[in-house]
Sequence to fold (64 residues):
Amino acid sequence: MTVQLKVPNLACPACANTVTTAIKSVDANAAIEADAKTKVVNTATQVSQAEIEAAIAAVGYPAA
Fold:
C-alpha cells in the first residue's frame, strides 16, 4: 500500500531523516520519500496509514 501524507512541519533534510526513521520503526521494509520542499511524504508500506501517522506525530511531525 502507498501512503501519501502532507507534513507541514517538514522543513529540512534533517526533518525528513527524522520522519524516515520514525516510519522505519513501525515498518523496517518501508520505501520512503520525504521531500522537505513540497512537505510530502510518500511511503510504500505494509502497515496502515494510521500507524504511519502515529509514528511521525510521536516525533513531532503530525500530518495535515
